[in-house]
Amino acid sequence: MAERIKVGVIGCGYWGPNLVRNFAKVAGFDMVAVADLRQERLDLIKRQYPHLKTTKHYRDILADPDIDAVAVVTPISTHYKIAKEALLAGKHVLIEKPMAQTVTEALELIELAEQENLVLMVDHTFIYTGAIRKIKEIIESGELGEILYFDSIRINLGLFQHDVDVLWDLGPHDFSIMDFLLDKEPLSISAIGVAPIAYNNLVSIAYITINFGDDTIAHFNLSWLSPVKIRRTLIGGSRKMLVYDHLKHDEQVKVYDKGVEIRTKDAIYETLVQYRTGDMYAPKIDQTEALEVECKHFWDCIVNRKKPITDGWAGLRVVKMLQAAQKSMANKGEVIPL
């Protein structure tokens, strides 16, 4: 019989109930307790899962010796504090993105988890989608050739956050996807952002550019002020190009046999640019819910002492990019080394 892991969820606002549902569904986990400051959220969970313990005090979960692991699904400003307490209490931790507000905090959590021999995993949910896993497979096969650019658009109307700007709200998704897909280390980042809506003076539109040591470039368009919702990434390779559209559930990934070929006629020193247009295909995508895949992986890492795909170091790399982009925005687009 598979080893049972007892888990508690701290924070039950927008995302927490999704984790509760998947922990309850995944074999190997026993969903034990939920903590949230709002009684109405606890009442809702209790109606759906009558057997769960509920509390307004997250330390009740940390103090429970029967609980092996916790998910921290609270506001970003509390991630470091609660995750640190959880690790010190001997709990394995799955922490919502981004894992911390600073590189220093992220490093401390990594070091503490290693010191206590505990699993620290970051909830970079998109990494566990069938689409992103398929794209990783395509890139690693060499089918796209050398990656030339990564262009991502994540825009919609709202939801305005009260504690973080659009960079820290939406950026972790695409930064984590890029970090997972590209086997390249970014060298610098520049960003500009504006807050056209007077709401807590938070940046609601941001454009970020990341440069690598070669000719590869990555660009991110993030916005809470778009009349349409777009979740699209273009990845250009020297052989083929790929489009990932998260909102097109029937064809989320498309691979295009399109590109540019440069040929030189030595006799007359003439360079010819030729455009290559071939077939397009949409590979079959595993439709298993990403959080289910992620929760299974969390269990596997705890029981079999494996390194998480989205471990603390992956979380740190995302926080490093966020912090540098924030510094660049504060300095009107200054290029910040990574």
Question: In CATH, what is the homologous superfamily of the largest domain?
Answer: Dihydrodipicolinate Reductase, domain 2
Q: What's the domain count?
A: 2
Query: How many helices in DSSP terms?
Result: 9
Fraction of residues in β-strands: 25-35%
Order of helices and strands: EHEHEHEHEHEHEHEEEEEEEHHE
First-to-last CA distance: 46 Å
Q: Which regions contain 5 or more consecutive residues with pLDDT less than 50?
A: none
Per DSSP E runs of 2 or more residues, the count of β-strands stands at 15
Instruction: Outline the biggest β-sheet.
Output: 9 strands, mixed
Supply the helix-strand structural class.
alpha/beta
What is the mean predicted local confidence, pLDDT? 94
**In CATH's first tier, which class of the largest domain applies?**
Alpha Beta
Classify the fold: give the CATH topology of the largest domain.
Answer: Dihydrodipicolinate Reductase, domain 2
Features:
34% helix; Dihydrodipicolinate Reductase, domain 2; 338 residues; single chain; six-stranded parallel β-sheet; Rossmann fold; 15 strands; alpha/beta; nine-stranded mixed β-sheet
